[in-house]
Amino acid sequence: MRNILIGGLTALMILAPLGADDFDFGDFMAGDEGGAAASVPSLDMGGTLSVPFRASWGDWTEGDNWKRENLEEGSCTVDPDLKLDLSFSSDKADFKAVINANEADMEDNLFDELSLTVYGDNMTAALGWQKVVWGKGDKVHVLDVLNPMDYTDFLNPDYLDRKIAQPMIDVAIPHRLNGKLELVYVPFFTADKLSSEGAWVMGETQDLINRVQGYVQAEAISRFAGTYDAAVGNYGDTLANAMAAAAQTAFLSENSSLVAFLPDTASLKYGQAGVRLTATLGQADLGAVYYAGRYRTPSVSGTSYDSLDIDYDPVQVFGLEAGMVLAGFNLRGEGAYYMTQDIAGDDKDVHNNSLNYVAGFDRDVPLHNVNVNLQVTGAYILNHDRIESGDIEADSDLTETTLVCNLSDSYNHEKVEPEVTLSYRVEDRSGMVKPSVDWNVDGNLTLTGSGTFLWGDDESFFGQFAGNDYVSLEAAYSF
């Protein structure tokens, strides 16, 4: 299916620059009115090469004392990243391809984005692997539901870099209130990408791995015993032991990865659809969203290997968004109702319904070029009192609240841009601070120095990664 779609996009890219007499969408896609001169088709190529050097030293303090052994045993990594951009533009269509040219990403997904957008007077249609952002929040959202996220490095990459492009059809129809009606269909489902090993394994993921491994090990012991009992009478103890060990080894090999237990979501059964209506009324930008899809993290049911079932809960999202400028403040907000199939809240294997929100503002302050950006995001789990032991949300709090504050400035005609971001989880009192400074050397080369420092209890949201503090120096060249 993927190869067919790539071939179709390539063919459309070739057809797009043809003249109106050669290729015409007719009244449906509405061409020029009044014979205005067509824009000259253009092909642009470019890319970005970034080379980040990261040094981490784990939990490097004990009380007020430096622990020199951790500084000496710390790790250093260099992970170059190359992205190539190819775009073609004409008066009828745009083609965009962002290629992951580094080996690790190419194995996962050659194209970071690959899409064709066709323009008409009455609608715009985009087809291909796309990253679509919904919601008025600033890199913090509860309505941005169309793309999964890459959390293999937890919260370190930029928001757009964490998004994973999805094959989708996105149709936008403008209307008179300076907004548009957007219709999106995603034929397949992709879960959030989570680490299963290394420094950035989330606690929930490790719990899932441990649970599945426990079921597999118990079943392996049972299969060893069953094979031995069936064989010992005919072949004797030594050969029966060998046959049982071989059967056990084969079973463990077949079930050595969590992937073996996940459903195949590359089917229309897991398709998703979304509708977004936006409009401008006076000084306010308003929007409404509906999404029918699935949770991006798995739900697990069963008490043994034979009864184990891992799937992704169906969910419907109903949401509102708003943004406006008031007295110098750029106000923004999102609110959403996440409705699963556990409306009563008593199904242990399905997420409860929840209310989710983002609210915040940013404002330039009269101190140099300082900008303050403050947002709060959170969730309220409905029927939380019905959650019992063994429920998928047994360890959850009634509310989840995170404060995010960003301070930024700029110097030397915006060539030097320092900033610091603080995130704080209210319920478990864990947090993260990320200072950084960008130096645009010559318009193409940018040097960035940054760090990430986390704190909190081992079971807390940020504290589970408290040993992963690091500093980084990155050189990025755009061409």
Written overview of the protein:
- The chain is of the alpha+beta class.
- 18% of the residues lie in helices and 41% in strands.
- It is built from six helices and 23 strands.
- The protein has helices at residues 2-15, 26-29, 68-73, 103-108, 159-162, 203-254; strands spanning 42-56, 61-62, 65-66, 75-78, 81-89, 93-100, 111-119, 124-130, 166-175, 179-186, 272-281, 284-294, 299-301, 309-311, 314-326, 329-339, 354-364, 371-381, 399-408, 416-425, 430-440, 445-455, 470-478.
- The strands form three sheets. The chain has an 18-stranded antiparallel barrel. The chain has a two-stranded antiparallel sheet with strand order 2-3. A two-stranded antiparallel ribbon has the order 13-14.
- A hairpin with a 2-residue loop joins strand 2 (61-62) and strand 3 (65-66).
- It is globular.
- It starts with a helix and ends with a strand.
- The relative contact order is 0.10.
Characteristic key phrases:
18-stranded antiparallel barrel; 479 residues; 6 helices; alpha+beta; 41% strand; two-stranded antiparallel sheet; single chain; disordered N terminus
Write the layout of secondary structure elements.
Elements: H1 2-15, H2 26-29, E1 42-56, E2 61-62, E3 65-66, H3 68-73, E4 75-78, E5 81-89, E6 93-100, H4 103-108, E7 111-119, E8 124-130, H5 159-162, E9 166-175, E10 179-186, H6 203-254, E11 272-281, E12 284-294, E13 299-301, E14 309-311, E15 314-326, E16 329-339, E17 354-364, E18 371-381, E19 399-408, E20 416-425, E21 430-440, E22 445-455, E23 470-478
Antiparallel strand pairs: 1-4, 1-5, 1-23, 2-3, 5-6, 6-7, 7-8, 8-9, 9-10, 10-11, 11-12, 12-15, 13-14, 15-16, 16-17, 17-18, 18-19, 19-20, 20-21, 21-22, 22-23
